[in-house]
Amino acid sequence: MVIHRCFLLVLLCCGMAHAACPSPPALPTTQQAAAWAAQAPDRGPLWRISRDGHSSFLFGSLHVGKADWAYPGPALRAAWAQTDVLAVELDPADVAPALQAAGPGAPLAPPLAARLEAQARAACLPPGALSALPAMLQLSVLTLMEARRDGFDAGFGQDLMLLAWAKAERRPVQALETLREQLEAIAPPPDQLPQIVDGALRQLQRGELRVPLRRLADAWQRADMQTLADYPRWCGCADTPAERAWFKRINDDRNVQLAARIAAAHATGQRLLVAVGALHMSGPQALPRLLAERGFTVEALRPAK
């Protein structure tokens, strides 16, 4: 199951837990935070993209992390120092009103809706906590809750780290997509929705998400682009024609528009640090490839080529 970036979900995931529930993260002490910030290694893939006489940077982010991951390493700090604007998938300020306007989306058959609610109870969420969300976002919340069992949390994702950094420095933030566009992208056709929800619930109910989540996080932090490129082969989330079509829709198909908007923003003379989910950097429509086709010189900084 791909984890989507929707900051309201972070709030929904924060609640009291007992021993059988995914534990909320422990916040670092002041001393721990200072040590982690001073010693942070580089994590995640990073590219310099140059055109029109100036450079921007493209960072493949992970939307969950561990407490000590929420600090930039040397390469990302250097990219930050050479840029003026942070570009991210979504502006978090747009999320809550857009979700309220969007509504719960296509309804599920009662047995499938009951299974989704049962899985929310198993994750220790209050009854009905997710019912106002579209089914695919409900699954994203449940995926985030499952990630907590291995010490990962959306609060330590790279996007939030960079947004907090930008806020502290009053750096402009530019959204590359609207929430409406993301919701339209992640919603499968109505005739495929039950199959995709059923497949994701089976993974959750069988405890089969934790291994691919750990593998994804490990590949991301090492900037292992081959493992990331092979994600559909080992995630257990793209095994059927409907699942493969859905994955292409939310990943490859969105990249075309993302590349166009990155290129347009760069063309205005802005020096961008672009942070987009790392899976968008792989596949036949990988963002570095699309930007190269648009005339950018693309230089991999991590992993170095």
Topology:
Blueprint: H1 7-12, H2 30-39, E1 46-51, E2 54-61, H3 74-81, E3 85-88, H4 95-102, H5 110-122, H6 135-148, H7 158-169, E4 173-175, H8 179-186, H9 193-205, H10 210-221, H11 225-229, H12 231-234, H13 241-250, H14 252-267, E5 272-277, H15 287-293, E6 297-302
Parallel strand pairs: 2-5, 3-4, 3-5
Antiparallel strand pairs: 1-2, 1-6
Structure commentary:
Helix 6 runs parallel beside helix 9. With 305 residues, this protein is an alpha/beta fold. Strands 4-3-5-2-1-6 form a six-stranded mixed β-sheet, sandwiched between helices. The protein has one domain (41-302). It has 15 helices and six strands. 48% of the residues lie in helices and 11% in strands.
Number of strands: 6
The strands making up the biggest β-sheet line up spatially as 4-3-5-2-1-6
Number of helices: 15
How many domain regions? 1
pLDDT averaged residue by residue: 89
The computed structural class is alpha/beta
Residues in β-strands, percent: 5-15%
Q: What is the H/E string?
A: HHEEHEHHHHEHHHHHHHEHE
> How would a crystallographer describe the biggest sheet?
6 strands, mixed
Protein name: TraB/GumN family protein
Keywords: Signal
Organism: Pelomonas dachongensis
